[in-house]
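Supplementary Methods S3. Complex input for the adenosine monophosphate-bound model.
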Amino acid sequence: MSTIFKRIIDREIPADIVYEDDTVLAFLDIHPVRKGHTLVIPKAECVNIFDAKPEVLGHMMIVAQKVANALMEATEAKGVNIHMNNGHDAGQDVPHAHLHVIPRFKRGEVFQVPEHETYEDGESVLFAEKIKSVLTQ
Ligand code: AMP
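Predicted complex, serialized as structure tokens:
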């Protein structure tokens, strides 16, 4: 099923495009966290990190770096956040992979993140072991 981002790629609806190549498109988020907030998306449709091709993800990050550098100069940002929501429960609303590149101007204006948790004694080792065993399968 095509998303609103596919319609932007196909130029069926307008967007403020800042960068384009054969693989990705970058355009301003319509509802910016801070002005200049840019989305970097692959042209070939995929939902998120779980089905994206590794080389496409890598290229998205390369372009996010270019955009981040441009935002530092163009918006006089003091820093940049890059994030990606993957899956409904992780806050993903548009099911077409995208990196958020957000200029930041002042520390303290943090994103709303869930409250941090604390590991019980020895628990972090178990988490690390479980993750490592999946990574090395
Ligand atoms: P996410 O919650 O990670 O799926 O983020 C989706 C982002 O897409 C939100 O920040 C929206 O503001 C943005 N968005 C939705 N529709 C458009 C659009 N037509 N043009 C630009 N950005 C959009």
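The beta strands are 17-20, 24-28, 38-42, 79-83, 99-104. The helical segments are 4-9, 54-74, 123-135.
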